[in-house]
Write a sequence for this structure.
């Protein structure tokens, strides 16, 4: 049930150029702003609070990383559910789940599924169900009920060690829709709920408390790892972008 998708300040409106400013001057101002690190600026007039899909390592869907926190306001319930839908129906999600199922096939996880195409289909279905339920619970359902923000807000400064600790700690600390720091109940209880729901379609011999807690712990660990990747990926992306331009 690993989530595939991570404000104290309301979204700022772009400054309007004075009447006498030329059109070219406005263009230069916008270009200068977009050159700033992580220049994720909502399109003027759209009022969007959802970041662009800045794919991790250029491949994996990543709709929840915010690099410039002061340019995004709180999400509506509709926007939270949109994040889950975008992640689960992203074109890369389907082959990624297929790869996960292939690993399970090779390791013969859940032996009752058997081998062959039928066994692979069952593993694919359960893997997609796990990912979909986990993503929906931690990104949409619990954040909407608890009024918490499911996005990951990049720190973007400090030592590697400090930033790594910060990103891993976001598993336990999140922002409320009001902008205040809160215990990340959406992550912890959302993954626990998803692990419990998975008992409805996983083999009967795995429907134990011990296995459910093991799945829950594994999901939380993978989400913490994903947070570390989200923290440093913008730096890696900008590094290679500059290298390609030279």
């Amino acid at each position: 049930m690993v989530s595939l998708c991570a404000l104290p300040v309301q979204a700022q409106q772009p400054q309007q150029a004075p009447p006498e400013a030329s059109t070219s001057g406005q263009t230069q101002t916008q270009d200068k702003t977009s050159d700033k690190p992580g220049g994720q600026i909502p399109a003027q007039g759209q009022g969007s609070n959802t970041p662009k899909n800045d794919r991790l390592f250029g491949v994996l869907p990543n709709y929840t990383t915010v690099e410039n926190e002061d340019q995004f306001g709180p999400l509506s319930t509709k926007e939270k559910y949109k994040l889950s839908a975008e992640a689960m129906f992203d074109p890369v999600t389907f082959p990624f789940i297929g790869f996960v199922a292939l690993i399970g096939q090779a390791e013969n996880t859940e032996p009752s599924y058997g081998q062959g195409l039928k066994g692979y289909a069952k593993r694919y279905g359960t893997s997609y169900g796990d990912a979909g339920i986990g993503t929906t619970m931690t990104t949409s359902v619990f954040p909407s009920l608890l009024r918490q923000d499911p996005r990951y807000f990049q720190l973007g400064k400090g030592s590697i060690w400090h930033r790594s600790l910060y990103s891993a700690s976001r598993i336990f600390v999140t922002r409320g829709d009001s902008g205040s720091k809160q215990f990340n109940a959406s992550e912890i209880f959302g993954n626990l709920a998803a692990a419990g729901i998975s008992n409805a379609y996983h083999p009967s011999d795995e429907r134990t408390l011990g296995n459910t807690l093991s799945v829950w712990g594994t999901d939380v660990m993978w989400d913490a790892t994903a947070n570390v990747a989200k923290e440093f990926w913008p730096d890696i992306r900008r590094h290679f972008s500059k290298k390609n331009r030279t």
Q: What stands out?
A: The first helix runs from residue 23 to 34. The beta strands are 65-66, 148-149, 152-153, 173-176, 181-183. The chain has a mean pLDDT of 81. The chain has one domain: 61-233.
